[in-house]
Structures are given as C-alpha cells and as structure tokens.
Amino acid sequence: MRDAPGSHGWGAAPEGSLNLAMVQQQERLLAQIDAAIRRHKAGTYGRCLGCGEEIPLARLKALPFARACAQCQEEWEQQSGQPAG
Ligand SMILES: [Zn+2]
Fold it and tell me: Domain for residue 20, yes or no?
C-alpha cells in the first residue's frame, strides 16, 4: 500500500510540517515574551490582567510571561477570549 494518505500533497513533507509547527510555536512564544517585556516597562509585569492581583511567584517561575493568575487565565480560556490589555 504505497498510495496512503500523505504520499502526495501537503502530507508528503513531514519534516517540513514539523519545522513549520516549531517556527509557529516559537513565534507565539516570542510574542508572549515581547508582551511581557512591554508590561515590565509599563510596571504592570507580574500583575494579573484580569483581577489586578499579583501573580503568584511559583506561577511566574513556571510561566514567566503569564498575563494572569491561574483562575483568570482559566476563565479566559473558557470564554476563548483575550483580555483587553
Ligand atoms: Zn486574576
């Protein structure tokens, strides 16, 4: 069975697809880091954009560019929306 799905067209280049996914992931990461740096300059880094409380240090260590505390982040993800800030 050589005519499996992916033997031609997009699926024919698994390595390329993997690289593309990695690049997209890194671009997202860079955008988040960039936003975190801007918040740092504005003096709002480490504060939750949802409730305004300080984001727990343990969370910032695990997720240095976190924009919100775990609770607010969860609410946003459930609404699949983004904070205004
Ligand atoms: Zn919050």
Answer: yes
Q: Which two tokens stand for residue 35?
A: 């936003």
Q: Give residue 75 CA to ligand 1 midpoint distance, Å.
A: 9
pLDDT tens digits along 3-39: 655 545 555 555 667 788 899 999 999 998 899 899 9
Specify if 41 maps to a domain. yes
Name the residue type at position 70.
A
How many domains does the structure of the chain reveal?
A: 1
Question: How many whole angstroms from 32 Cα to the centroid of ligand 1?
Answer: 18
The pTM assigned to this predicted structure is 0.57
Kindly give the distance from the C-alpha atom of residue 52 to the centroid of ligand 1, in angstroms, as a whole number.
6
Q: What are phi and psi of 22, to 5 degrees?
A: -65, -40
Kindly report the CATH number assigned to the domain that includes residue 75. 1.20.120.910
